[in-house]
Specification:
The radius of gyration is 22 Å and the shape is globular. Helix 4 crosses helix 5. It is mainly alpha-helical. It folds into three domains: about 35 residues, no CATH class; about 100 residues, no CATH class; about 45 residues, no CATH class. The chain contains eight helices and six strands; from the N terminus they run E-E-E-E-E-E-H-H-H-H-H-H-H-H. Strand 2 and strand 3 form a beta hairpin. Keywords: Nucleotidyltransferase, RNA-directed DNA polymerase, Transferase. One of its GO terms (molecular function) is methyltransferase activity. This is RNA-directed DNA polymerase from transposon BS.
Length: about 210
């Protein structure tokens, strides 16, 4: 009995076919729902091929617009530790948003795009310093390591809290006591037929859980 407002609805056809033969647009009571190639859902950009290129592009654009303020703060001779605080609050927070959703699925070149944002920021705050030295001075981790930590922390909270909304998505626990291995897995990981599924947050985190 859901009533659709066609003026506010959009259709996102998801297909992995190279031919890109899409079905005809959906019509509801004579009104056509506009098909789109990407859509933003709760701040996360999802495209028709379920890749993260469009979302990372949005993050890079948003972060680049705020880089200008780092330059202005540096010119105003604001202490470096305060500029770092601004960077973490206003720029890195945009990079971190919903990172567990896409962290394990990012190819290397998209990870480098995110890392490049932080490299530019620290080059402004600590001019002439190597990236590794600037990270040490700022007390920050690389974007990859930071997102890894956030993803593992979220997964631990899901496992430990049975009331968590995502707890029901966890694989079955390994309760087989017939075999004793040198390293026993906590979860029975289902077979993944696609790389996309294997690198999803729940699947990949379940494999890493014993190492977290």
């Amino acid at each position: 009995m859901l009533q659709l407002n066609c003026r506010k609805c959009k259709e996102l056809p998801i297909t992995f076919s190279r031919s890109r033969n899409l079905p005809s647009p959906v019509n509801v009571e004579g009104s056509t729902i506009i098909p789109v190639s990407k859509v933003k859902l709760l701040g996360v950009t999802i495209n028709s091929t379920l890749t993260w290129n469009d979302h990372i592009e949005e993050i890079v654009k948003k972060a680049s617009r705020k880089q200008y303020f780092l330059v202005q703060l540096k010119r105003a001779k604001v202490p470096a530790r305060e500029i770092v605080a601004y960077y973490c609050a206003c720029i890195r927070s945009a990079i971190d948003y919903a990172c567990p959703v896409f962290h394990y699925s990012l190819p290397k070149y998209l990870q480098e795009d995110l890392e490049r944002i932080q490299k530019r920021a620290l080059a402004c705050i600590y001019p002439g310093r190597r990236y590794e030295d600037a990270l040490s001075l700022a007390g920050l981790a690389s974007i990859h390591d930071h997102h890894e930590s956030l993803s593992k922390s979220l997964f631990r909270s899901i496992v430990s809290d049975s009331k968590n909304k995502l707890h029901a998505l966890l694989p079955q626990r390994n309760n087989n006591a017939k075999y004793y291995f040198r390293k026993r897995r906590t979860f029975n990981i289902p077979t993944a037929k696609t790389k996309r599924y294997a690198q999803s947050f729940i699947m990949h985190s379940s494999k890493l859980y014993d190492d977290i």
